[in-house]
Structures are given as structure tokens and as C-alpha cells.
Amino acid sequence: MKITVVGAGAVGATCADNIARRELAEELILLDIKEGFAEGKAIDMMQTASYLGFDTKIKGVTNDYAATADSEVVVITSGLPRKPGMTREELIGTNAGIVKSVTENILKYSPNTIIIVVSNPMDTMNYLTLKTSGLPKERILGMGGALDSARFKYYLSQELGCSPADLNAVVIGGHGDTTMIPLIKHATWNSIPVTKFLSQEQQDKIVAATMVGGATLTKLIGTSAWYAPGAGTAAMVESIVRDEKKLISCGVALNGEYGQSDISLVVPVVLGKNGWEKIVNFDLSEAEQAEFNKSADAVRNMNNVLEL
Ligand SMILES: NC(=O)C1=CN([C@@H]2O[C@H](COP(=O)(O)OP(=O)(O)OC[C@H]3O[C@@H](n4cnc5c(N)ncnc54)[C@H](O)[C@@H]3O)[C@@H](O)[C@H]2O)C=CC1
Ligand SMILES: O=C([O-])CC(=O)C(=O)O
Questions:
Q1: pLDDT at 39
Q2: Cys-Cys with 273: which of 82, 167, 171, 243 at CB 3.0–4.6 Å?
Q3: Is the CB of 120 under 6 A from ligand 2?
Q4: The whole model's pTM is what?
Q5: Residue percentage of the chain with pLDDT more than 90
């Protein structure tokens, strides 16, 4: 198994670290445009192998796409992160060009790969990849729901005083401060609806905190988060390469599902060796479907900015 991570910055390096620790690949290529940067990070990670006991061979390269040839999965994290006070959408001007050129270069050497897009604004960057790569839609996934669902579980666990591992909680919609939809009415604590234990005020607080989870961390850190984004992306990679069939919220092309078409939005999908294998329908309430449609309108407005 060969995996490539493009972008050796905060998220890309953390994702690579998670992939190596779990030995999801024999060969892991880390690629960055900044001279020597990916090489340095790869050597640093390889020097943890004797302590962590992994066998994955990590190699860093500067813009050398030939080294990525025949990758089965490629994660794209290249691009600018936001600064405090910015929205993810404001990154579109720079990141669209980066994601498009990276995708073209990757496909020259791995024409049948599975691509996971992390760069923001993720919903629109994933749509761009869907429109320009020519890959089957099942082989293109956006990472956002995996992270937002983990944040949702974190905030629920804080309020309930429970382990996040005992929670089932899902975020759908867009990966934006105002477009994500934490489905609190569907969330359970070991099969019991969480709403049974939480006042309306607590529920509203958890949903609001989840939606601005990324902005909160950006304000605290000065740039956006990387530990949970790296771990969430690696969980998607793991379900694909081990064919685990995990149900994870991902950005995928909708073709009538959830009432939307010609758009990438976050919905629960089964992840296996062929990419996303099935979209699972949630039977949304009327109010939830209205929120989903509103998120779709906002994401579509961003998509319209792209020069396709
Ligand atoms: N979808 C999600 O849930 C999340 C998305 N993000 C997004 O991921 C992206 C990366 O974030 P960070 O790692 O924190 O940023 P970073 O600045 O630490 O790393 C980005 C890396 O991309 C590299 N790069 C830029 N242009 C490139 C190109 N053409 N080819 C190869 N490499 C290139 C840069 O040299 C840099 O090392 C941002 O757009 C951020 O908004 C971050 C967290 C979560
Ligand atoms: O907040 C950001 O800009 C980065 C991101 O997508 C997240 O951490 O959710």
C-alpha cells in the first residue's frame, strides 16, 4: 500500500504521523512545495520509528510528483489556513488554484487513486476536484464531517460528563461556521437519545459550540487546528485501506440524495476499499431538511465563484 499526503504543514504532517503510527501503508510520500520542508518532516517522523515501533517508510519530497506514482490514496492538505477573524470561504482565491494544480499533477502519476480533500473551503474544493479530475465520484471525498462529528462528541461529552467513545453523534451539511448541521435529535449515548439528559439550553449551547469549533481554535492558536483534523483524515484513510466499511460523515457528490444534486456536501457514507461505497439516508425532519437546503444554497454560491 502506498499513500501520498500533499502539504507537509500542520494538518498534512499530523495526518502522516497518524498513518505511520497505525501502519496503514508500507510507503508514505509527503510532498510540499517549500524546498526541503517535507524531507525534514519525513526524517523527523522516521526518527520516531524506533520508539513507536512502526514499519511505514516515510519519504519527503519537494514537488516531485514522480515519487507519488501509483499511490492508492492521496490526501490533499496544501493551501492556506485561515487566521483569527477569517472565514474558511475567504481562502478560496488562493486555495482553488493550489488544489486544482495539485490534483492535475497527482493524476499524471496515479490516474486511478482515491483523493481525500482537506484544504478549505472544503465543500467547494471537493466540488472543484469532482469537476476537474475526471475520477469516478466514489473516489473523491472531502474531510470535514469526520472532524465536526468528533467535535460534536467532545462538546456532548463535556456537558454529559461521559466518554466521547460512548456517543454516536453526526454532523452533516457543509464544513462552514454557518453551514454545518450537528444532528442533536439523532445523537445517542449508548443508544439512549442525548436529548433525554439535556435541557434545550444545553442542546443549543452544544450545537453552537460545534458549529464554531474551528473558529474557536483558530482564535486560541492563531492559525487553524491540526491534531483532530489529522486524526479525522487518518480515520478515513484507515477505513478505506483496511476496507473497514465504517460509517463516517464525508463530503461527497450528491445525485438526488438528501434532495440535492450537482454539489458536494457532508453526509454519512460507508468507506471501504473503493472509496465511498454507499450514502446512508437519515430521514431528516422537515426542519433538518430545510437547514440542509439552506447550507446547500450557501455552498452552491461559493461553488459558483469557481472558474470551471
Ligand atoms: N477540512 C478540514 O476539516 C480542515 C481543513 N484545513 C485546511 O487545510 C489546509 C492546510 O492547513 P494547515 O496544514 O494548517 O496549513 P499549513 O500552512 O501548516 O500547511 C499548508 C502546506 O501546504 C503547502 N503548500 C502550499 N501550496 C502548495 C502546493 N502548490 N503544493 C504543495 N504544497 C503546497 C505549504 O508549503 C504548507 O507547508 C488549509 O486550507 C486549512 O484551512 C485545516 C483543518 C481542518
Ligand atoms: O477552522 C479552520 O479553518 C480549519 C478547519 O476547517 C477546522 O478546524 O474545522
A1: 99
A2: 243
A3: yes
A4: 0.98
A5: 99
